[in-house]
Specification:
The protein has 125 residues and is mostly helical. The protein has five helices and no strands.
Length: 125
């Protein structure tokens, strides 16, 4: 069983990065919903304005989080560029976060993942 822990625990740079990656995906989703409403026969424009502004703010925070995380966790240039590029297509920030945790790029979040994945294997043996 995967344990989420405290979603709002922002005590480390890796946890802040994870939070902003998820938040960026949520605001992408809301913006896409807003764009659908904009295309209705009777357009509703406020969702694009509100969710567009929210996504823009979170996008900038995500890019700043990438730069801070890259510096704090000594990411290579390749990893940093991948993280920055992941902010462009919808939902790819979360995919990058999953990859980074699995490959040991996210500090203590990577260690927790490997410890969790090894624990059930040893119980089953």
């Amino acid at each position: 069983m995967v344990r989420m822990g405290n979603v709002f625990d922002l005590s480390t740079v890796a946890k802040r990065f994870r939070f902003l990656a998820v938040l960026e995906a949520v605001t992408w989703f809301l913006l896409i919903i807003g764009m659908v409403y904009k295309r209705l026969p009777e357009p509703v424009l406020w969702p694009v304005k509100v969710f567009g502004m929210a996504h823009g703010i979170v996008f900038v925070l995500f890019v700043l989080a990438v730069l801070v995380t890259a510096r704090e966790l000594s990411w290579s240039a390749k990893t940093t560029i991948l993280a920055l590029l992941s902010s462009l297509p919808p939902f790819c920030g979360v995919l990058f976060e999953i990859w980074a945790a699995r490959t040991g790029q996210l500090g203590e979040l990577s260690n927790n993942r490997s410890a969790e994945s090894e624990a059930p294997a040893s119980v089953m043996s």
